[in-house]
What does this fold into?
Amino acid sequence: RAKQDGKGSHRFFEPAMDAEAQARRAMEVDLHDALRNGELELHFQPLFGLSQNRVTAFEALLRWNHPVRGMVSPLQFIPLAEETGLIIPIGEWVIHEACRVAASWPDHIRIAVNVSPVQFRSSTLNSIVLQGLARSGLDPQRLELEITESLFIDNVEATLASLHSLRTLGVRVALDDFGTGYSSLSYLRSFPFDKLKIDRSFIVDLLAHEGATAIIRAITTLADALGMETTAEGVENSDQLDILRAQGCGQIQGYFFSKPIPAGDVAQLLQKLDQDRRAA
Ligand code: C2E
Ligand code: MG
Ligand code: MG
Ligand code: MG
It folds into this structure.
């Protein structure tokens, strides 16, 4: 009883913190150890090339398997990692791990890696990418970095300079979540992205709004004219797939083909999707 009171009274002297801030702090402490404790894991989701009629790439998606909380969504912990700067060591691990895993895949399959704006603006990204390629022996052309439009809100010049220096390493650059938020077409003219990834919100709308199909057509026409590929993200059914194919979209990513899977399941998935296309 007395012991319990003692513990309770201890809390009394802590600075006032609301429950949310406290929870964030706890998660931050845990995230700090997550990398060292081996709680971070990459899952891989296939991108299916419609003209090739096979899987052409996988996107690496970060997973945090927390010992108590279970799987924590990247939508929750990536922002925290960005605020605390932990995204730099975590992002480094992601790049190295993604290159390492992809190096064991067939040569025609690329690996796409998400790069946070914080990571992108840091001075170490180039050397981390270079090191990831060197250690794994992965052909630079098989590595695709996914960045978002938010990088163009301010300091367009610096963003373009960084993109060009990444390009000199031989890696590809894709614009993720294209069409959301801060769209301006001027940066498409300024930098030759290898690919536009059409945001899932446009795909969700495909069956509900006629206008959504026109938007897809406009994006694929624009991308074609600029020599860029297109990937539609979040494709969940064959109706969406049919529309996207008809509108000239190059690649399909989404639960329709597969959810993100652990590295150990990739070979089996490739075999299965290969069989499906031979049967089709
Ligand atoms: P993103 O890069 O746009 O990745 C696509 C997200 O859509 C993934 O969510 C994926 O699991 C989900 N998705 C794929 N197909 C479907 C579908 O058919 N339906 C639905 N409803 N969702 C689908 P996830 O894995 O939760 O990742 C969320 C976001 O977290 C990513 O969005 C990316 O911005 C960020 N992220 C993930 N891994 C990393 C990483 O290694 N580094 C950084 N900086 N960000 C990451
Ligand atoms: Mg992405
Ligand atoms: Mg995306
Ligand atoms: Mg997205």
Q: What stands out?
A: Confidence is low (pLDDT under 50) at residues 1-9. Residues 19-34 form the longest helix (16 residues).
